[in-house]
Design a protein that fits this description.
8 strands, 18% strand, single chain, four-stranded antiparallel sheet, alpha+beta
């Protein structure tokens, strides 16, 4: 889920069965959610994405793509770290079949699993010594 804040500072996105555990929460074009009285904390999100990219590199991976609502991306790029985000990461250009405003996805590239020049993206990673978690989802098709 996206990090959120209100007039008092960072807060939590209230999730429960009635709002599909947060997936039925929606933000307007400025990243505000009147129903929850909060807005997306784009600064915190930018920091999180850059930390994920750095951690991926430590483990021999890279961030292949970030899926986040294209209409909200300008707010993310307007943050203090927005320029770094645009230099280091690729973002979805088209709206997904499900709007990604209350959450975002990160696809990782593992060069050890790439074959014939097609990046392999997995939902988990392996440590340098070969341990780790087996991928639950493996995608090799272009998006």
């Amino acid at each position: 889920m996206v990090p959120v804040k209100n007039a008092l500072g960072p807060t939590m996105l209230r999730t429960h069965r009635a709002n599909k555990y947060g997936y039925a929460v929606h933000f307007d074009g400025n990243g505000r959610c009147a129903a929850q009285g909060c807005e997306i904390d784009f600064e915190a999100m930018a920091s999180h994405l850059l930390c994920l990219a750095e951690a991926a590199e430590v483990h021999g991976l890279s961030v292949w793509r970030v899926i986040f609502a294209p209409d909200l991306q300008p707010h993310l790029f307007a943050t203090n770290k927005g320029e770094q985000l645009q230099e280091k990461l690729s973002f979805s250009k088209k709206q997904s079949w499900v709007r990604h405003d209350e959450h975002y996805h990160i696809d990782f590239h593992n060069p050890e699993e790439a074959d014939e020049g097609t990046p392999s993206r997995t939902s988990s990673w392996k440590t340098p010594n070969g341990g780790g978690v087996e991928p639950r989802v493996k995608r090799s098709e272009p998006w």
